[in-house]
Specification:
Distance between the termini: 6 Å
CATH class of the largest domain: Alpha Beta
CATH architecture of the largest domain: 3-Layer(bba) Sandwich
Number of domains: 2
Strand order of the largest sheet: 1-15-13-7-9-11-12-4-14
CATH topology of the largest domain: Glucose Oxidase, domain 1
Structural class: alpha/beta
Largest sheet: 9 strands, mixed
Strand content: 15-25%
Order of helices and strands: EEHHEEHEEEEHEHEHEHHEEEE
């Protein structure tokens, strides 16, 4: 059995509004920072117990003079590899209150994986329904309910260049509908977003006045209940088009429409 990590790291980038700065408490700074944080408690303890001197929490209190590391991250739930729940798409899905990330059944996040490859797609090109049909025919597979379908474009290799964010290909509405109507609840992709980059969609809307250009796959999630995994990576390392399993359990962020996830393919060899 081989485990394949299909996530990308969470890292700040000037073109990514979803990931803010990371403040790092290094091991070396730790004693000073923790000592400052607990100085009031130390002073109160000395007062209550009548100590002649207020104890000091500094590097001498810790082995090798270093404390624990810690990192503080300003992060949106859409930063890094993440799973979109129906609530992200809108407040209602299929006529019912849309599921938030904590409402997603765990059974949806574990299943047989299917890898569809579209690495020949050009920047800003859509993956159409006929592309999906041809690829399914090529690999000799028909999706079944509960399958988790992965869309490989190879665009994760463009990180950290600006075109990772503003020039990636994307799923079309018809391609998404084709998979969902076959019972697929979870579709993952190795691009920054499931739809085309925001600037490209807004430009088309401005030129045509047609709102169907705006996040069409996301809006479809109001009609049919399905989940998107965005910002995946390394799909080519799976080495199989089907016959593997995928786990993609999201972090439960209370009330949120998405959660960070570390998808893993379980490949049997």
């Amino acid at each position: 059995m081989r485990l394949v990590d299909l996530s990308v790291p969470i890292a700040p980038h000037p073109d990514d509004p979803n990931v803010g700065e990371v403040e790092r408490w290094t091991h070396e700074r730790g004693p000073e920072l923790i000592g400052r944080a607990f100085a009031p408690l130390l002073a109160e303890t000395a007062r209550r117990h009548g100590l002649a001197e207020v104890p000091v929490l500094d590097s001498q209190a810790f082995p090798d003079g270093v404390f624990l590391s810690n990192e503080f991250v300003r992060l949106a739930v859409h930063g890094g590899t993440h799973l979109d729940a129906p609530f992200h798409y809108g407040p209602v899905c299929e006529g019912r209150p849309a599921k938030r990330i904590g409402d997603i059944p765990l059974e949806w996040c574990w299943g047989d994986g299917v890898l569809l490859s579209f690495t020949d797609k050009a920047p800003l090109e859509l993956i159409e329904a006929e592309d999906v049909e041809r690829e399914l025919q090529r690999i000799g597979y028909t999706p079944k309910p509960g399958d988790i379908v992965l869309i490989e474009t190879g665009w994760d290799e463009h990180w950290p260049e600006p075109d990772y964010f503003d020039a990636h290909p994307a799923m079309s509405l018809d391609a998404t509908r084709l998979l969902v109507e076959q019972g697929v609840r979870v579709i993952g992709i190795d691009t920054n977003g499931f739809d085309l980059p925001s600037a490209a969609m807004i430009e088309q809307y401005a030129l045509t006045g047609d709102p169907s250009h705006l996040w069409p796959c996301h809006m479809y999630g109001r009609e049919r209940e399905y989940l998107q995994i965005e910002r995946m990576g390394g799909l080519g390392r799976i080495g199989a088009t089907h016959g593997f399993q995928l786990a993609c359990f999201p972090i439960r962020v209370d009330g949120a429409g998405a959660g960070w996830v570390r998808p893993v393919a379980i490949v049997h060899e």
